[in-house]
Amino acid sequence: MDRKTQTLLDGEGSPRQGSSPSAPDVRNELVARAAREGKSLQEYLLGEMTPMAGRPAVADLVPVARERVRRRGRSVAREDILADRV
Question: What is the 3-state secondary structure (H, E, C) of 3-26?
């Protein structure tokens, strides 16, 4: 990990409170990660985004969850949760 990345992250690899990396900082970090894997930035991003695109967006799940609560009330049985898995 380079010095710039270390300054943006805390000791556990999470973004530091109050730090907001600029777009060039983010791009440079992604380019560095791609290079470490021997990939172009486009190849790296496609590999990172493909699994994300295969999952439903949180915004799409909220109406489903609200409807479930409306129909069943606040308490949902374990079996019902498992039966409704997306």
Answer: HHHHHHECCCCCECCCCCCCHHHH
